[in-house]
Amino acid sequence: MKKFVFLSVGYQTPSKEMGDAWMKWFASIRNHIVDSGSPFGPGMEITSAGVRQLPHDKGAIAGYTIIKAENMEEAVKLAKTCPIITGMRVYEAMSM
């Protein structure tokens, strides 16, 4: 099995229904979860040009989850079942 990182895109204050949907989703993929992750608060970006505060809005990276799956196709299939706010980014965690 390979590891994949799900990055949740889009922040909004969660309603009870949204929180319940997320918990149901985590339960449905529990056999794939390596690290259920955490939501993110506001962030900063550091580049060679300086530092800037990142907006905590519908364009923000709002949290992460690490799962195991056979391949990218399976990881994408699992991500599609998530109650996303704006989107979900899926990256393979490459072995070193």
CATH class type: Alpha Beta
Number of strands: 6
Strand ordering within the main sheet: 2-5-1-6
In percent, how much strand structure appears in the residues?
A: 35-45%
CATH architecture: 2-Layer Sandwich
- When the domains are counted, the total is 1
**CATH topology category name:** Alpha-Beta Plaits
State the end-to-end CA separation. Answer: 15 Å
Largest sheet: 4 strands, antiparallel
SSE ordering: EHEEEEHE
CATH homology group: Dimeric alpha+beta barrel
Brief account:
By secondary structure, the chain is of the alpha+beta class. 22% of the residues lie in helices and 43% in strands.
Describe this structure in words.
22% of the residues lie in helices and 43% in strands. A hairpin with a 2-residue loop joins strand 3 and strand 4. It is flat, with a radius of gyration of 14 Å. With 96 residues, the protein is an alpha+beta fold. The chain has two helices and six strands, in the order βαββββαβ. The strands form two sheets. It has a four-stranded antiparallel sheet. It has a single domain, classed as Alpha-Beta Plaits, CATH 3.30.70. The mean pLDDT is 94.
Q: What's the structural blueprint in terms of helices and strands?
A:
Layout: E1 2-9, H1 16-28, E2 33-39, E3 43-47, E4 50-54, E5 61-69, H2 72-79, E6 87-93
Antiparallel strand pairs: 1-5, 1-6, 2-5, 3-4
